[in-house]
Write a structure and sequence with these properties.
155 residues, alpha+beta, four-stranded mixed beta sheet, 39% helix, elongated
């Protein structure tokens, strides 16, 4: 039983998986209870098992006006344009779903993206209250700092 749970070919599986492996070759009375006892006492299993919480995602609040809340993403690895740009910054208004597609370089840093955002989006629609992006926090932090610096505002 210990071999089926944590042996060289096993991976310290949960109780049901260990029980299924054993049932392929063995059967004895109170087999489930014995497997439960072994899996429950396995310290490696308890250290390695992940916590999984089921539940509903919390949706983002819907903006009340156009260009109050936007999402920003990048499409990369596109064919190069005549000006050498191979990526597109996509900015979508979450209220109207209107989108802007701005060509940029894949290697552009956050301060350059902030400059592009100022020229192409803020110039036409103003400053949004929220920006949603899947970029990492380091990029977003530098983007915000650069953006507010370009606007002449101190955070």
């Amino acid at each position: 039983m210990r071999e089926a749970h944590g042996g060289s070919l096993a991976g310290h599986f949960r109780m049901n998986k260990t029980l299924d492996i054993l049932k392929e070759h063995f059967h004895w009375p109170k087999m489930g209870e014995d497997v439960h006892r072994v899996v429950s006492s396995c310290s490696i299993y308890h250290k390695a098992k992940s916590q999984f919480h089921q539940g509903l995602y919390t949706p983002l609040p819907v903006p009340l006006r156009p260009w109050e809340g936007v999402s920003m993403d990048f499409v990369v690895a596109l064919p190069r344009t005549q000006r050498g740009k191979e990526s597109v910054m996509v900015v979508v208004d979450r209220f109207t779903k209107m989108a802007h597609f701005v060509a940029c370089h894949k290697a552009d840093d956050a301060s350059h993206i902030a400059d592009i955002y100022l020229r192409e989006i803020i110039r036409q629609h103003g400053v949004p209250k929220t920006i949603v992006s899947d970029r990492d926090t380091k990029f977003l932090s530098h983007f915000w700092e650069s953006w507010w610096h370009l606007l002449g505002t101190k955070l």
